[in-house]
Write a structure and sequence with these properties.
Blueprint: E1 2-6, E2 9-23, E3 26-39, E4 45-56, E5 61-67, E6 75-76, E7 81-90, E8 94-105, E9 111-122
Antiparallel strand pairs: 1-2, 2-3, 3-7, 4-5, 4-6, 4-8, 8-9
Protein name: Co2+/Mg2+ efflux protein ApaG
Pfam families: DUF525
Organism: Flavobacterium cellulosilyticum
Length: 128
């Protein structure tokens, strides 16, 4: 698990290899990840959008931007947490993701970025 705190918001990530399959005559490596967002600040906040940079060991990079996470824009009061699961496909058995969440502080009405630390995606058979 990797974790990082930005402006009182803690992001923790767990990853898992889900298997391989063929699509469009190419092998794909499927990974899932679970992200927990914990509000350690004194103010209520809302996640409004996300930015991902996904890279594999073949140096393929994909940028993903979008509203919310898994179709939701969770509001977290002080002391609350929100956990969700998602996934991605890579063209190789090893890669990584990093990014950030754009959030808004309801007390100050200011928007801010919360860093999602780089997390590795690795099929067990790819390890030494």
């Amino acid at each position: 698990m990797v974790s990082q705190i930005t402006k009182g918001i803690k992001i923790s990530v767990l990853t898992s290899f889900e298997g391989t399959y063929f699509k469009n005559h190419k092998i794909h490596f499927a990974f899932s990840y679970e992200i927990t967002i914990e509000n350690h600040s004194k103010d209520a906040v809302q996640l409004i959008s996300r930015h991902w940079e996904i890279i594999d060991s073949l140096n393929n990079m994909e940028i993903v931007d979008g509203e919310g996470v898994i179709g939701k824009k969770p509001v977290l009061k002080s002391g609350e947490h929100y956990t969700y699961n998602s996934g991605c496909l890579l063209a190789s058995p090893y890669g990584a993701m990093k990014g950030y969440f754009n959030m808004i502080n309801f007390t100050s009405t200011k928007k801010f970025k919360v860093i999602v630390p780089t997390f590795k995606l690795c099929a067990p058979f790819a390890l030494n």
